[in-house]
Design brief:
By secondary structure, the chain is of the alpha/beta class. Helices cover 30% and strands 15% of the residues. It is elongated and about 80 Å long. The protein starts with a helix and ends with a helix.
């Protein structure tokens, strides 16, 4: 999760935008996420981190921060366009950071009590491009996969689904329509012409005026309508 979020400093379309964790493991998750960030030592010097694309997006990211909710990180340098990996806690769906795609190294953590409530809140927004499920519970996995509409994703993994050329990659609704990779890409970027052809030696007059009840009965019979 940490690798997937801070890859390219969060500037990938399939980066995890936020994390939903059960309240019973929220603190443990935050501690482990912090440990993983510190272990990775994200920096340009270590060749595992990058700049934010431009100053405008530095300002946009800073504007999303709530200083009272920063658990870790939050520092940035406008001149070098470096924004350090940042964890936010006590976040709700009403917070500013949850009102748009982050596209940067800020990871809000939202705790929930009920999985049904969490799913309902996700469904209130636009369809996600990706969803990543981390669980060993088959019932939880199936519930999320069946109840949430999203472009694609992974179970106990993140981002890597888009590297499989045999899996169609794309969105649904606001996250995009259609998919590509292999045959799926060919179908998406091709136009299928729909053509009806009938012979010249026969012309059924059911479609022509006058429209009689007898004709209607025949049309219904041909169409299998009772």
């Amino acid at each position: 999760m940490i690798w997937a979020k801070f890859l390219n400093a969060g500037q990938t379309c399939v980066a995890p935008d936020y994390v939903l964790v059960h309240q019973s493991i929220e603190q443990r998750f935050l501690e482990m996420a912090k440990m993983e960030i510190e272990k990775e030592k994200f920096s340009i010097q270590n060749d595992n981190y990058v700049q934010i694309i431009n100053t405008k997006n530095i300002h946009r990211l800073v504007n999303l921060l709530d200083k009272e909710k920063i658990y870790y990180g939050g520092k940035y340098d406008e001149q070098s366009r470096i924004f350090e990996p940042t964890l936010m806690h006590h976040v709700t769906f009403d917070d500013k950071v949850m009102q748009e795609e982050i596209f940067g190294p800020i990871l809000p953590v939202i705790a929930y009590q009920s999985l049904d409530f969490a799913i309902a809140k996700i469904k209130e927004g636009e369809n996600p491009l990706a969803c990543y499920i981390f669980t060993s519970d088959q019932s939880i996995k199936n519930k999320i996969l069946n109840e949430i509409s999203f472009g694609g994703g992974a179970v106990n993994e993140a981002i890597m689904h888009m590297t499989n050329s045999k899996l169609p990659f794309g969105g649904v609704g606001e996250s995009g329509m259609g998919s590509y990779h292999g045959e799926n890409g060919f179908r998406t970027f091709s136009h299928y012409k729909s053509i009806l052809e009938k012979p010249t030696w026969f012309e059924l007059n059911l479609k022509y005026f006058p429209h009689t009840k007898a004709k209607l009965r025949w049309i219904k019979r041909l169409m299998g309508v009772k």
